Amino acid sequence: MALSESNLATAKxxxxxxxxxxxxxxxxxxxxxxxxxxxxxxxxxSGIRNFFGRFSNQLTLVIEEFDGLESNEIYEAAETYLxxxxxxxxxxxxxxxxxxxxxxxxxxxxxEEVIDFYKGEKFKWxxxxxKTERKDFYNPxxxxxxxxxxxxxxxxxxxxxxxxxxxESYLRYIINEAENKKQEKKTIKxxxxxxxxxxxxxxxxxxxxxxxxxxxETLAMDSDQKEMILNxxxxxxxxxxYYRKVGKAWKRGYLLYGPPGTGKSSLxxxxxxxxxxxxxxxELTDLRRNSELRRLLLGTANRSILVVEDIxxxxxxxxxxSTSEDSSSREEESKVTLSGLLNFVDGLWSSCGDERIIIFTxxxxxxxxxxLLRPGRMDVHINMSYCTPCGFKLMASNYLGxxxxxxxxxxxxxxxxxxxTPAEIAEQLLKTDNPDLSLQGLVDxxxxxxxxxxxxxxxxxxxxxxxxxxxxx
Length: 473
Hints:
Rossmann fold; 18% strand
């Protein structure tokens, strides 16, 4: 239906007025930003927003970077979570990369709008960054600033009806997602004890990047055993609420045992790479008392692996019988004891942290005290045995890039009886890139290994016979 001349004139008048107001607003805002301090600008524009906000069905949550001098966990989580988000209105992102890290850090730029959807509802994020010249304002992250500092915050806007959804569910979801994203992209580190800073909880562990390339795909391990470990790890990381419900500390103990060279360290690295967990390498022989052991435990982070290698060689783990209370007391003060270690593994101190894996390794499981081996302390016992035919084929694929060869059947038969470690096979496969020469060299090595193993067996009957003759005399 055509508009009458009076209606058309009214519409033109309205449009002209709106345009004039918009133009005037732009001019006024420009002048204010040029000549007026930020605090006054913020006061004026917040008043305008509040006025028009009375007629809106939208609600805005302001998430500031700091709560006093304390960091705001929600702000840090939103910063990580929104870094991977993109929306049609986003035009600018910030990218950075610390020198010793592998991943890029991507965050939204100031005043950029990011639209997110959660359970079918729309949430709009805007990152606000403003300069202030207030002398009484101090941003803990601006260590080099003098008068000027930045006030940073996120504004989260959504429909009023979704207030409970946002506060009770959406924000918790963002915190969990941010933690997972940090875990996935972080550079894995291995920590060792700095004994000169034993009494400083922030500096007692010294980190370096763990660049070990071992993965479950490259491990020369029986496929069924590998699958069992992976399933156990997956179940463990998903059971936060289950552990809480049954009243147990959220931790898991593994004992890796077997001859040297069977891949215990490689398995630890593979677990760390799979879970993106940092590794804490603990040498018990350098500790003087149980209290130091507890202090080191408190200095480890959640989502980490604590490793004690060659546990049978580090401290005397057999149950001791002391002749007097004085001698027992001196022993307690001078070294880490079995009782101290057990309390560390599954006593009250073991609950100081979440989602932790403790791994002990040993070449001689028979030397360990049964008290250390029971479930709840060492939950999973993994026998790192000699190389199997399946393990050899995987190593041939990794080292030589071949899936089959005329010598494979012969080598698999020899491996089954040779009692050879993956480390020994790896050494043979590394000698040349030529598959024919490499595999023939492995065949010769396996024959010599079998012969070497047979010689002690052949000597046993003669030694036993000599012992019997000696007894008769």
